[in-house]
């Protein structure tokens, strides 16, 4: 984390967010903030409510209650469109790709490049797609094929490219490396560091402890829809975090690691 | 995975055909075979005159098929086009009777069709009724309104100019001879055929080159993904249904103009021909797949079949059976290719 990060206005403040499905409380009174140039890990067991919380921020889901502030101002995010206008880009866990369209068409879906006459500028979209996809994966070929014929990892690369191509200020990554091989995962890791340097705030949902401790400045842990912990990464060990994820509690003898070191 | 499958298949396919062009090629081949077979059976079949007749007959199904293709690509279906066709013709006829000149009266008819399409789109997107049910309802409503307005009786004596759109033609060459009947050198290209060509080119342009076309494919391919990508899914769907309704209205005007009479009970089951044309042309009822050129080939196949079987003296009942089999075969061939 940049030293002055905490003193700036938070990029995002989610306050007392609630989301119910019938009797299920998918997100229960969760608050979260994110500062510029910060990577916050969002952790939790399967079904803990991580994706719901992220989808609420990206406009894909409307919360039952709670407020969201972006750059200190209340933001009324009613649709993915609204979120994008605020500079919020999302890599969805489901990837959200239109299977019958090719990679460039997916990359620019909803934000197509057009010629002077308002026609689709497919050649320019293809050229741009080649540029951004090659950066993430140098062996990316078959850009003309529908994305349904791509491998899982290639599809994930398309989804990542779509999120970073446009002017992103807040990046939500919901398990972005789940289908990636080691070298692509490393590529995403260096991408995250680079974006952090540029002052972009990143919410990273992941089950991979190694990645989380490698990349995150802070972690937030969810358990059964509630937030059970929010810690700077240097204050916790992997075991502490696992305990939070599984039991919803820290080990009883826990004290912040950074303070322990001082004692 | 698909790459592996393809790799495992040795040189039998040295050049790779995209899914769409493979289907189109096989449909074109079918069309060529049909024309060949019918010409072989009856010399009169393969003539300019009969060719134009087939095109004329195809134009109504073709117009309906273009709108239907758009709707099918969004993952929907429009069962109301046959009835909307009748209602639009009726509205045009009533407008003329009320004193409106022919051209604006036809425009009113087309707009009535578009309005029906808008209602379809609204019911589907805002009331969240499935396309099948919503357009089934509209099919009954539009037909009912058309019959109610006319008392189920045809409207005739609409004036000569009303028949122009359906019966006129361009580049007609007539040689004056001494006899009562002038000799027709070239019958001319019928207006409906020209209209179909224009609408088909415009439709293809819309689907391939415009943002709305891209969004139509995206919506049918993965509605949730399209929505998350900022596509206005509801607006896109409504657009497709409005277009389908307007084209049904246009087809209705062409058809009634050809008959020079408004028939409120015309167009029954035309929706099925339009769906068949789109499906034979490679459109998938699952959404996300389809194109105008394919649908045009599909409409031509149906037109040629009807015409050829007619000339061969095959009954209308047998024709239905044959077209039914063709529809199933077209989809079957497509599936085999996808499984390969
Ligand atoms: N659209 C929905 N309708 C009904 N229930 C839902 C819906 N979306 C999520 N849920 C429920 O909300 C809870 C939280 O789901 P969510 O997808 O946020 O979990 P998650 O933490 O992302 O899990 P995972 O690690 O498996 O991705 C689950 O119990 C799920 O069943
Ligand atoms: Mg999830």
From TrEMBL, chain A:
It comes from the Bacteria. Keywords: ATP-binding, Nucleotide-binding, Repeat, Sugar transport, Transport. Residues 12-249 form the ABC transporter domain. InterPro entries: AAA+_ATPase (IPR003593), ABC_carbohydrate_import_ATPase (IPR050107), ABC_transporter-like_ATP-bd (IPR003439), ABC_transporter-like_CS (IPR017871), P-loop_NTPase (IPR027417). The keyword Nucleotide-binding applies. It holds the Pfam family ABC_tran. GO terms for molecular function: ATP binding; ATP hydrolysis activity. Belongs to the ABC transporter superfamily. This is Xylose ABC transporter, ATP-binding protein. It comes from Roseibium aggregatum (strain ATCC 25650 / DSM 13394 / JCM 20685 / NBRC 16684 / NCIMB 2208 / IAM 12614 / B1).
UniProtKB/TrEMBL annotation, chain B:
One of its GO terms (cellular component) is plasma membrane. It holds the Pfam family BPD_transp_2. It is a multi-pass membrane protein. Its main location: membrane. It comes from Roseibium aggregatum (strain ATCC 25650 / DSM 13394 / JCM 20685 / NBRC 16684 / NCIMB 2208 / IAM 12614 / B1). Keywords: Cell membrane, Membrane, Transmembrane, Transmembrane helix. CDD domains: TM_PBP1_transp_AraH_like (cd06579). The chain crosses the membrane at residues 25-48, 54-72, 102-125, 132-155, 189-207, 238-255, 275-305, 312-333. One of its GO terms (molecular function) is transmembrane transporter activity. This is ABC transporter, membrane spanning protein (Ribose). The keyword Membrane applies.
């Amino acid at each position: 984390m940049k030293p002055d990060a905490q003193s700036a206005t938070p990029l995002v403040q989610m306050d007392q967010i609630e989301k119910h499905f019938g009797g299920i409380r998918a997100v229960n009174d969760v608050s979260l903030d994110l500062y510029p140039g910060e990577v916050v890990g969002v952790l939790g067991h399967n079904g803990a409510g991580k994706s719901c919380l992220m989808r609420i921020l990206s406009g894909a889901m409307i919360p039952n209650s709670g407020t969201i502030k972006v750059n200190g101002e209340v933001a009324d995010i009613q649709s993915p469109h609204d979120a994008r206008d605020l500079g919020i880009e999302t890599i969805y866990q489901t990837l959200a790709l239109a299977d019958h369209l090719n990679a460039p068409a997916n990359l620019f879906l909803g934000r197509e490049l057009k010629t002077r006459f308002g026609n689709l500028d497919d050649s320019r979209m293809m050229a741009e797609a080649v540029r951004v996809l090659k950066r993430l994966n140098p062996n990316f070929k078959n850009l003309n094929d529908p994305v349904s014929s791509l491998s899982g990892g290639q599809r994930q690369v398309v989804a990542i490219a779509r999120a970073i191509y446009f002017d992103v200020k807040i990046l939500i990554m919901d398990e972005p490396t789940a289908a990636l091989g080691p070298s692509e995962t490393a590529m995403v890791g260096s991408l995250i560091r680079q974006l952090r340097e540029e002052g972009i705030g990143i919410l990273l949902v992941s089950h991979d402890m190694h990645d989380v401790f490698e990349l995150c400045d802070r972690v937030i842990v969810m358990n059964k829809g509630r937030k059970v912990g929010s810690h700077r990464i240097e204050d916790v060990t992997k075991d502490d975090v696992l305990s939070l994820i599984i039991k919803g509690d820290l080990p009883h003898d826990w004290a912040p690691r950074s303070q322990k070191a001082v004692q | 995975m698909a790459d592996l499958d393809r790799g495992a298949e040795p040189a039998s396919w040295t050049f790779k055909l995209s899914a769409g062009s493979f289907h189109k090629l096989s449909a074109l081949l079918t069309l060529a075979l049909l024309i060949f077979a019918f010409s072989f059976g009856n010399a009169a079949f393969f003539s300019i005159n009969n060719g134009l007749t087939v095109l004329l007959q195809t134009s109504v199904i073709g117009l309906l098929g273009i709108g239907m293709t758009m709707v099918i690509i969004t993952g929907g279906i429009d069962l109301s086009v046959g009835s909307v066709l009748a209602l639009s013709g009726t509205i045009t006829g009533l407008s003329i009777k009320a004193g409106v000149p022919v051209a604006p009266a036809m425009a009113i008819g087309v707009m009535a069709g578009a309005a029906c399409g808008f209602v379809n789109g609204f019911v589907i997107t805002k009331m969240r009724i499935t396309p099948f049910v919503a357009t089934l309802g509209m099919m009954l409503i539009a037909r009912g309104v058309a019959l109610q307005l006319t008392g189920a009786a045809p409207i005739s004596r609409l004036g000569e100019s009303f028949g122009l759109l359906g019966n006129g033609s361009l580049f007609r060459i007539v040689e004056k001879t001494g006899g009562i009947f002038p000799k027709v050198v070239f019958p001319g290209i019928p207006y409906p055929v020209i209209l179909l060509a224009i609408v088909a080119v415009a439709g293809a342009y819309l689907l391939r080159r415009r943002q709305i076309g891209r969004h139509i494919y995206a919506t049918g391919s993965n509605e949730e993904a399209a929505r998350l990508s900022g596509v206005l899914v509801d607006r896109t769907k409504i657009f497709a249904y409005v277009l389908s309704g307007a084209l049904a209205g246009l087809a209705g005007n062409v058809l009634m103009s050809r008959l020079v009479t408004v028939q409120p009970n015309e167009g029954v089951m035309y929706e099925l021909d339009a769906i068949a044309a789109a499906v034979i042309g490679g459109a998938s009822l699952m959404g996300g797949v389809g194109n105008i050129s394919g649908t045009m080939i599909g409409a031509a196949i149906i037109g040629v079949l009807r015409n050829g079987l007619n000339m061969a003296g095959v009954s209308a009942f047998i024709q239905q059976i044959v077209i039914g089999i063709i529809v199933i075969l077209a989809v079957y061939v497509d599936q085999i290719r996808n499984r390969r």
